[in-house]
Amino acid sequence: MNSLKERFLRYVQINTESDPNSENCPSTERQWTLANVLKKELLELGMDEVELDDNAYLTATLPSNTSNAIPPIGFISHYDTSPDFSGEDVKPRVIETYDGGDILLNAEKSIVLSPEYFPELLQYKGQTLIVTDGTTLLGADDKAGVAEIISAMEYLITHPEIPHGEIRIGFTPDEEIGRGAHLFDVPAFRAKWAYTVDGSQIGELEYENFNAAKAHIRTFGKSVHPGYAKDKMINAITVLREVLSGLPQEEVPEKTSGRQGFYHVHQINGSIEEASAQLIIRDHDKADFENRKARLQALVAEARTQYGTEIELDIADQYYNMKEKILPVFPIVAVAEEAMKAVGVPPIIKPIRGGTDGSQLSFMGLPCPNIFAGGHNFHGKYEYIPLQSMEKAVEVIVKICELTAKKPPETWRQKKS
Ligand SMILES: [Zn+2]
Predict the structure, then answer these.
(1) C-alpha 306 to ligand 1 mean position (Å)
(2) What is the pLDDT of residue 412?
(3) Which position among 133, 154, 175, 208 bears the catalytic label?
(4) Pairwise CA distance, residues 40 & 44, whole Å
């Protein structure tokens, strides 16, 4: 039988890096390799309805083992890894009984994973850590989630005395390029609600995320010889600077935290004739989010009048705060909270400063909070995961299934705001 650790180590060695420049789904052919491995494993485990569709979405069913009417619930994770850092030739290393000191990831390149920079390492002293060789990411995001969900299904199959309703599981490609939920067939998935197992440290439970939009500004100028430019030249760079300087300078990612929103200019190009900026807008509060977009529109309108020149502004919403879809069904969070407590994991409930596949799925009709998968330092060479956190994630998944079967969800704790 496959252990959780063995499963995880095997998955991370299969490169599944996704590619934002591809229009295809999956965005990279290489993702099929792991998708097929997972499909085969689910069949061997005895899961029902194992289906790998044309876009590499893999789903399967664990049938209910009681005659009670229990709503079908789901667990979802993504098997692609971030294109931000290499996922080629990952060589995971297992560190038994971490001593709390520096971990030399790569002697040749002097790459060290140190609690001096990453103090949260210290809470795992004495545990088993899985780290990289310093040249790739690890892929705990989110192959840990995949391994945990499969191990939890295996546990339920080998422990039929634990009652559970129908459990649906789903593994998606391309989450890291923002498309993991795009082709997810929610009606076919059938679950009443689901959990993405894609959070970071042990205990994380999330049901609030940003409202998100992206904006593209293009300003147009008029180039004239600088010596004869008086009252004639319009400098597109100046116009762009005028718009951007009107944004609140304290409301940027590097100066905000918690539920504070921001504007983030991440790219600027420019010449006299034409300049452009790309930015993202983020806010947990829906009204403040709308105000932020309106403020940018007003700044552009003012600059248009002031300089008498054309300015293009495209704003596109990207995703919304799932909170508004979760609050009406808050018991699904309460069940997860209770499951964590029952297996000795103190829940850490906090708003996400980002989005998840779950936020998109929630707006597609599948309410979907996020629970921890256990890893740290995603998308880079310092990524690591404690094995004990992974084991707890498996226990939490099993416990959620059990609690949902034992107590009708509507009797769980409600929350209004
Ligand atoms: Zn992830």
Answers:
(1) 45
(2) 75
(3) 175
(4) 6
